[in-house]
Amino acid sequence: MLNSSSHPAFLDEISPPSWCYETRFNGWNTPPDVYVSPYWRQFRAPAPYLHYLLGILYIALMVISCVGNGMVIYIFLVAKNLRTPANMFVVGLAMSDLLMMAKTPVFIYNSFQLGPVFGNLGCTLYGVVGAYSGLGSAFCNAIIAYDRFRVIVHPFSKSGMTMTKAIAMLVLIYLYITPFALLPAFHVWSRFVPEGFLTSCAADFFMHDFNGRSYIVGTWFFGWFIPISTVLFCYARIFLAVRNHENQIKEQARKMNVDSFRSNAAIKSSSAEVRIAKTAFCLIVLFLFSWVPYITVAFMAGFSDPSLRRITPVLSMIPALTLKASACFDPFVYAISHPRYRQELQNRMPWLCINEKVEATTNGTCDEVSKTTEHA
């Protein structure tokens, strides 16, 4: 068992305040088969109440995410009018968020046991599920943005989206991210090790050789930079296309000396497109909120001097929390923005008191992305 006597005395002087940490050092109760980075062993173990607090917080996040994403999957799959290729990407995002929560019970149990109870195998499985769900969510956001871009910016494109294409694209996403999930599991490219509180696992960011640092850079570029660039490009083009369309209509109306010559359907269609663009933009802001802390901590850990101790166990848990929070936000943002989804919720779960107006969902132009994608 590891205790403070096995560490230099000066570590006691630079450790965090006693109210935040124990007198024992990190890794004191770690199973023999679990590798703990020497970087984490120089910190005193987090106080038990911090573990319990995180465990309770994760229970709340898990419940919210499971309820929200479960409702999204249920409604989009059982309602025939919502079973479109575009909405399959929404279902794919919800499934990624649920997969992210599938590992949460392990973290909760570890938190109340103050350490990694399930050993090296449990840590590896935790890391694999985390890689698949985290990167899968990133690329689902990207593919949703591309689908919106294709429908709104190029509505007359001959390359239509079918259900088969949508499912194939989702399968390709997970094939693409498989190396980032499985290679660390077999210690081929980085490795999955406990992080911070030693109750969760991720890639070893303190592996300061080419193997470890190349994984950080590779994950950042191929797993984060590419999808975020796709999302930003698509939403920027959507915004510009909608703005230019509105300006053209206003200019034509001015030349004809009329207030507006668009039909009510066209007005509703345009407003729906703007609403969809705003919703997608909100999702990417949430995506940035969830991923920027993770990428920042990874680069700080992988490319800074370990002796500076810039990453503390408490700080290392913030990215994990923001990622879990994004899995809670996604389904509710879609629920707010999708009138037909709200209508189905009202019909199938009246006790939720949605009170969506029927007129908002019966018009054929209220779900332009799904309808246009289906008939493109």
TrEMBL record:
Keywords: Chromophore, Disulfide bond, G-protein coupled receptor, Membrane, Photoreceptor protein, Receptor, Retinal protein, Sensory transduction, Transducer, Transmembrane, Transmembrane helix, Vision
Matching PROSITE patterns: G_PROTEIN_RECEP_F1_1 (PS00237), G_PROTEIN_RECEP_F1_2 (PS50262)
Entries under SUPFAM superfamilies matching the protein: Family A G protein-coupled receptor-like (SSF81321)
TM helices/strands, residue ranges: 49-77, 89-112, 124-146, 167-189, 215-240, 280-302
CDD domains found in the cross-reference section: 7tmA_photoreceptors_insect (cd15079)
SMART domains found in the cross-reference section: 7TM_GPCR_Srsx (SM01381)
Protein name: Rhodopsin 3
Family listed: Belongs to the G-protein coupled receptor 1 family. Opsin subfamily.
Domain G-protein coupled receptors family 1 profile: 68-334
Gene that produces this protein: rh3
Compartment annotation: Membrane
InterPro entries named in the record: GPCR_opsins (IPR050125), GPCR_Rhodpsn (IPR000276), GPCR_Rhodpsn_7TM (IPR017452), Opsin (IPR001760)
Lineage, opening ranks: Eukaryota, Metazoa, Ecdysozoa, Arthropoda, Chelicerata
Listed GO biological process terms: phototransduction; visual perception
A GO term from the CC aspect: membrane
Membrane topology label: Multi-pass membrane protein
Source organism of this protein record: Cupiennius salei (American wandering spider)
GO terms for MF: G protein-coupled receptor activity; photoreceptor activity
Major subcellular location class: membrane
